[in-house]
Amino acid sequence: MSTLETKSLSLLLPERGLYTARRGGFGGREANRQADRAVVGSVRSRAPVLGVDRLPPAFIGAARRRHRCRVLSLKESFGRHPAGGAREQCFKKTHRYKIIEGDNAIVTGTVRISTNVENEKISANLAECIDDEEEINTKDIYKELRLRGYQYAGAFCGLKSASVTGSNGHVAWTSNWMAFMDSMLQMMILGQNSRSHYVPTRIRKLIIYPKYHTQIIQDYPIEDRQFSVRRYKSLDAIISGGIEICGTVATPIPRRQKVVNTILEEYVAHGDLGIMSLQDAIRMSTHIALECCNMINIKIIEFVDDSDKVISEDLNSLLISEILNDLPQIRHHTKLVTIHEKFPNISLPDNVSTTEITKLSKDENCLIVLGFDILTKNSKKLYKQLLSLLMPKGFLLTLEESDAVYDYLCLKTYELDIILEKQINDKKLNIARNQRIVHVNNYEFSWVDELKSIMNVQNETGVDTEIILVSEEDFKCGLLGFINCLRKEPGGELIRSVFIQDYKAPTFSLQEPLYTKQLQLNLPINVIHSGNIWGSYRHFPLPSLELKLVQSAYVTQMVQEDLSTICWAQSRMSRINHENLIDVIYTSVNFKDIMVAIGRLNAEIMATYERSNDCFIGLEFVGFNTHKQRIMGLCSHGGMTNILVADKYLNWIIPDKWTMEDAATVPCVYSTCYYYALYMRGKMKKGDKILIHSGTGGIGQAAIHLALHEGCEVFTTVGTVEKRQFIRETFPSIPEDNIGNSRDTSFEQMIMQRTKGRGVDIVLNSLAKEKLQASVRCLANGGRFLEIRKFDMFSNNSLDISIFSKDISFYGIILDNLFYSKAKQKSKLWKTITEGLKDGAIKPLCRRVFERNEIEAAFRYMAAGKHIGKIIIRVHKKEEPLDAPLLAHPRYYCLEHKCYVILSGLGGFSLELADWLTLRGAKNLVLTSRTGIRTGYQQSRVKLWRSYGVDVQIFTVDDNLKHEDCESLLKFAEERAPVDAIFNLAVVLKDCIFQNQSPQTFENSFKSKAWMTKKMDELSRKICLQLQHFVVFSSVSCGRKNTGQTNYGMANSVIERICEKRMEIGLLHGLAIQWGAVGDVGLVANMQEENKELVIGGTLQQRISSCLETLEVFLLQDRFVVSSMVVAEKAKIGGSMNIYETVAHMMGLKNINAVPSNMPLVEMGMDSMMAVEIKQILEREFDISLTAQDIRSLNFAKLRQMTITTKQGMIHDTNKIDPSNLEGFDMLIRKMKDADFVPDILVEFVE
């Protein structure tokens, strides 16, 4: 007996054609819209309260403030009644109003009637003239807003046009005041040079002048009523018609990310012989079974005999469930068949159940039956039991001991074939008499009509013809993509293919044993690789990116507000040509870093926005400069790194007596206290009384050192007994009675008692709310209040203005402003700190040191508020060389001195790709286009990139791009700068079933996709000698099947083989990406209805931001074909929907009763694409399998009978099994050693 070991995988691909719309929530922007509605609604409903019975001629809303964002579901709304979710409160005397939910105010403000609106309005003489060209239309405006996270719909899509800068535009008037004012606010969002998600949180003044507004609109026809809208930056106002919105403050908030199941895979060639893990072997077995049967609703049985020594960890049900969950549309149910309570504590998902073999029916109709040691049991009864559970052409997967001995006669008895090892029994299978062979190629498409003719004859005569598609002598043939799509269409299930990639293989012939033995297995796709090894192409999970050693890295946060995602990431910083380069040894964690990390503070509103900056963590550093001097310093952002370029005014030489740890505690806290707060603003002098809150913190300790050095009387607060003891030990000159509690307002009584009611001269504050108010009251006449708590300032928390009657001064201390100030201001800081170092005023602080691999722990420690002094990070250890690499998450960066070419560069995805490349450092872009810039949106993006110093060139090409044109393009790009990457995003879609395709439709799809890629491949090898990335965008339709896209799928398959061939050489890069449906931009986004989620072939649209994140992962891995898609949620098998009504709805028939019940659907307008959609939905939703001929003969009488049958629990299925006839079963045999039951064990397959 010979020893067999087999394995396999397979994958059923998504279908296309049926689009199911799902409506999603609006998220943060909808909350903004609802809040605006409440403000306007409160104004209108307030007329009776104010004693006016009609809408006033003009009214003023002032100091409108949103306290928090309220995210609403689609069913919620604001109203006066508590049941409405929120209620209004308005006060007649003060004109104040509140919108309250529970006990919390959501929006507050004032509203009043204007007695002289002309005096309230902005004077026309003050408003600057704004008349920029309005280049962006409605479609482009809301595309851009959608990319920023705003999902507008209906009347809220009111902007008709706008300038690129968002300074002026036009807004439609639909008699909806709320939608009109929201559209005005959208102009402010367009003007933001950031794609962060902003929501208005404060409006200083809102003027609504209805009379003037209605007078203006009368001059316009009803069908085209629109106002010009202008945004005056100098006046901080937006004006349109009779409405002025002044002093609007917009705050960036994190986007609420929807959790989706994004599947990342690689698509690789697989030979039958080789090494593979158990998980991958079962994955391939499952995929092959699906590929052969072309089903959507799958039933699987895993059988465990009483005698099997199997534990729950050995079961494969859960693994198969995971595999099928990753496949679009495939719905499955698995039965674990075993004795009662064999696995008592096992946890199973909803689609896996347990039962006993005696409870199974003969109509299980399973695709796969799994078992253990089935062949060695030699039980005919067991064979019959298990095989009777299978559907025709079902699969039996058994796991056997590698040294087991069994009789192969059992295979003959039940006519079983071993699929993967291709070891065939001596039995002779008869090949069908009626066979036709069609040779397929990429360069001329006469074979298209030949194949259509054969399929037409088959449809007309009803005689099944075995069609074999053959490709030979061309490794780059697109046969795989073609056959994948064709098998999803009527008649395609009978077609098989042979793809000969081995140039040494014999010419294809049905008399050649190499081919006849393989064809006897009846597999749809047969690929012969080099060395005459049969195999296929399969999807496997893409390995996660591994950390790698890099020369420069920085600390970043992968997910906002999630401290567990803080990590080291590769930096673009280079050591070359930087005069003030610092090798960082220590860095520190500051309170600002914590506030940014937990989402309480957005760094964009604190400093100048830098478009390419994605990290605001880290303000100070300690290290060595290029002269090996020990340096400490400040930076605006990104200080948590191993190398940086220092600002020459913001770094100091470390005193000889200090260690580098000592120095790491100094720059930020002393720059804040010594220069900016206590001396520059606080005018601190000897004899002053000063209250320093949080005295054990970094700034607190630094301030105490400075105050004591100056000769001031110090009061301080702490939060724990341990911190009080620290103050007593570290600063013994501070009396016990001068130490208060920072957890309440009792420190106010302490101050007044100790100063005999006078108060203090200076308060250095870091407390909030009522403790902040108490701190202000602690000031003496002429006192100075120094506020260092950024959150309260940017949240605009209220302050009792009466305190200013004591002639006090209030200063906001924001060190970040210093980083962007003039050199003179920075120089003053440098001199002040230098003097403090010399005279001993500046002293190092206590600290706790974390290692560089303890970043998350350091942040959590500080966030807990239990630390004393500074928290510092040791970036380099003493024994490490300064240029030692760090382990970090790899990132993709562009090179400033290189060029990046994007074919079809002005499309939706292309523009986002170009924008992403500029964010990653690209300074030279060449974008090709057939027509050049046509839309305002394209113009706006190009203008934006050029404003950042990017050289953007638009290279115009035509559809028939010749060899010399491609050569000219690449030479043109090389003249700008050496080409580093080429991206081909070109696409031409002509979707229809194959019977309606023609050689011309295939040629059209090939021109810009396959043939263009082939020319670029050949020419770039000669012209672009420094090319690092060659990337082409493919589609899941190629690797996972899609109805109506045989031409598109074939063209994509060609470019995948080109990339595979490039990578095979070893020195060239090649990457083809099988994208699923892409959201926000591109073809699918244009088809999408407002704010509704399309489900296409079992997949959802992948947001463009997610696509770009995924692209980076792909670029950092050496794979030639990869795949990305988002799998939609799947319904359970066995739904109770009405078949009759579902089909009528698909055909657009509103009155079913008026339809003749016996009229074929074809005569009612069912075309070929609709027929495929009906077939698919019957399989997916009702578990009904019909042939193409059945679909063509359907009428509503038959559909009504199917509905009745389904309700009675009788599944209509054309694939009923006759247990007495066990012919035609394929068998997957997996033989393993005992050790193979351990996860991730690799198994070699031998003959």
Characterize the structure shown.
With 1247 residues, the chain is of the alpha/beta class. The chain has 6 domains: 118-252, Polyketide synthase dehydratase (Thiol Ester Dehydrase, Chain A, Roll); 275-413, Rossmann fold; 548-651 and 849-888, Medium-chain alcohol dehydrogenases, catalytic domain (Quinone Oxidoreductase, Chain A, domain 1, Alpha-Beta Complex), CATH 3.90.180; 666-839, Medium-chain alcohol dehydrogenases, catalytic domain (Quinone Oxidoreductase, Chain A, domain 1, Alpha-Beta Complex); 899-1127, Rossmann fold (3-Layer(aba) Sandwich); 1139-1209, Orthogonal Bundle (Non-ribosomal Peptide Synthetase Peptidyl Carrier Protein, Chain A). The strands form 8 sheets. The protein has a 16-stranded mixed sheet that branches. Strands 3-4-5-2-9-12-11-10-8-7-6 form an 11-stranded antiparallel sheet. Helix 1 crosses helix 4. The longest helix is centred in the C-terminal third of the chain and has 25 residues, at 999-1023. Keywords: Phosphopantetheine, Phosphoprotein, Transferase. This is LOW QUALITY PROTEIN: fatty acid synthase-like. InterPro entries: ACP-like_sf (IPR036736), ER (IPR020843), FAS_pseudo-KR (IPR049391), GroES-like_sf (IPR011032), KR_dom (IPR057326), NAD(P)-bd_dom_sf (IPR036291), PKS_dehydratase_sf (IPR042104), PKS_KR (IPR013968).
